[in-house]
Fold this sequence. Notes:
Layout: H1 2-25, H2 31-44, H3 46-61
Helix pairs in contact: 1-2, 1-3, 2-3
Amino acid sequence: MLWAEIVYWIGVLCATGCAYDLVVRRRDATLWRRSLQAFVLLFLSWPGIAGYLIFIRCRKTK
């Protein structure tokens, strides 16, 4: 039970950091799109983080 809580809170912290990166630093999308992406990222937590890193972060660096 303790490990599940630790993994959960790590996911919440990582998702919050990714959402911050989306909303504040990413300027190539409109505000409503960035907000929607941040909401989905926070709602899905670990799958959202994986999708962010694969599709959004990698595309941003190219």
